[in-house]
Protein 1
Amino acid sequence: MLADTLKKEESDMYDLNGKRIMVTGGLGFIGSRVVDKLVEYGAIVKVVDVKHPNDYAAFHNDKASYFVMDIAHLEQMREIFAATRPDFVIHCAAFARMQPSFEQPDECFLSNVVGARNILLLSKEFGVKRVVYSASSSAYGEAELPLTEDMKLAPRALNPYASSKRIGEMLCYDMGVLTGGPETVCLRYFNVYGPRQPDTAEGPYATVIGIFLDQYKAGVPMTVVPDGLSRRDYTHVYDVASANIEAMLSPKVGKAEIINVGCGKNYSIFEVAALIHGKPKEALVEGKDFVFIAPRKDEAKETLASWERARKLLGWRPFVTLEDGIANLKKHL
Ligand SMILES: NC(=O)c1ccc[n+]([C@@H]2O[C@H](COP(=O)([O-])OP(=O)(O)OC[C@H]3O[C@@H](n4cnc5c(N)ncnc54)[C@H](O)[C@@H]3O)[C@@H](O)[C@H]2O)c1
């Protein structure tokens, strides 16, 4: 059972009764939260994921049905669409992290580009009303803050993952708006964290809050990438799941709009470490509270979202502050 003390007042009462919704990547960190929320509001949920639900009990929802499949396999995916006939697709499946994409760019492009193309192609073929695409703030690279959706992007992305997610946005436009495909909407998430986040310091998929909490629990120093000053806008997974449902239902979108899903506030790595340690960042002691590790390749130094468009088009706003989100995660360590 997930921690529910962060649940916002139920202003978001959705009527999803009888709606057939496919969630790709529904055994992942974000997708599994989306699945829980859709089920809670009465949707008929079909999950497609390469992972087997029996191996991921903590991510599995008994009221959803699961199809074990790689979205890059067009013919098998066609059979799943034919069997499930979704009204909507929430497309979360992806090779989902930056640093591993330097080692495995081919796998990254297969899932993120070929996979997205298959989802859009089949959504058109089977009359899906709308595809909600999980885009990424990594699309911005190094850019002036705050990051706004209409700002001009650098010609090249900083890493293969960011490129692949940018191509997915283009496909949403080309295979949706330009060629009579399904309605589409692209949500650029900013550093998502919360329950079920990847958390093993050694794992290539873990993200900083997960790693730091794991290290805090083990009583070992947090591993900080130099110089500890890069800043990120952190978004709680509960808010990201709400944004997905609002994007699926909003009458104001459907034409491949790009919409930031972030909080409009950013924190340095040291500030995150300090929040978890429960002391001011000036009081952090090198060697005891943290150690420096090797720098990372090609990621933006700083992110900060403008979420004005999400407010206007989706009626969305972030509810969970980083302070509350971390306090809640610490309670469940
Ligand atoms: N977590 C973040 O901070 C963040 C930020 C921006 C965007 N995103 C995007 O959000 C989405 C979800 O990310 P997440 O953090 O939950 O990642 P995750 O790795 O936890 O979940 C992704 C899921 O997709 C599945 N998957 C991967 N490739 C697949 C394929 N070819 N066929 C079928 N299933 C496949 C995985 O098994 C996994 O269950 C991704 O599209 C990611 O790019 C995440």
Protein 2
Amino acid sequence: MQEKSRGDFRRHAARDYSQTPLNIYWEMTQACALACRHCRAEAMPEPHPLELTTEEGRALLRQIPQFGDPMPHLVLTGGDPLARKDLWELLEEARCLGIGVSITPAATPALTRDVLRRLKEHGIEGLGLSLDGSTAERHDAIRGVAGTFDRTLQALRWAQELDLPVQVNTLVAAETAGDVPAIYELLKPLGVGRWSLFFLISVGRGKVLQPLTPEQGERLMRWIYQTALQAPFVVATTEAPSYRRVALEMKRASGADAEEMKRSGATRGFGIRDGHGIVFVSNTGEICPAGFLPLSAGNIRTDHLVRVYRDSPLFRQLHDPRNFEGRCGVCEYHILCGGSRARAYAATGNPLASDPFCPYEPQAPISGLKPA
Ligand code: SF4
């Protein structure tokens, strides 16, 4: 394993997130052999009949460089992207276009050492693997198929041999939170580059699991910050932007310097949130602010990704935190945090509402903005 940032998929070159996202997530297919209890995509064994064709996928890829420099990074998700028969030719197209690509395959028998080698040969810059339990029993219960824990650890070892950077993603829900420290201990010697803790949003099959309470979430975020300062890899969160506030509060209380703060990884996501720094294209071409915010602002078949991201009414609202409502609308942290727009939408049907997972009461509400 090389230096700590090796597994960080994201190229954090400075950019205006209202013009250019950091990451584009393309859900290549809903087809997947697993049946994970929290699957956002509600994956099926078969592709959706209206899934983007190879030519439509190529057309999507050709739009990405039109964001200009720095170009967004592309994350291929699913379902299982390995279930796309045209994966290799699409990877080749992306490489010809100069797009940096990461992939999040499912831990099925299709994920072999040879496939990982081919992915690396096709220019894949990072591999995302899910690990939701510290034992086979715990992980496989979440993933719905026996053997996925062993396959995931095997894929981790192969990736290490092949010098392929890995991000491990772990679900945080009431059912898994107590196991998070044990998962960290398991990962420590495995040479991963980045560990991202995804805080459950109840959409898709995720509705069968329970999210943490805001107070439990704050406690876990404090543990994450302390752990991140010493971890042999970057520790990050997904759909928990209020972690940035917690990290800043802890930094102030402890007197940690800017370098320690940077090393914790907490500053990396500053300003990024659903629809601002992130855009998601579904398997049928719908352009959404995030995979967990299933509001479509256009379709890749008829609209241009760059124009939708920059100019559609939905994205324009999400780019400006002055549009947010409730506590997130007046919070002094709303530029660097802004709350999870996906969770606000899941809870209220309004993507501009306050993030119900955050218990923070703004101390110095920003004047001139909408009151709660
Ligand atoms: S109130 Fe909203 S903007 Fe403020 S810290 Fe909480 S989630 Fe972030």
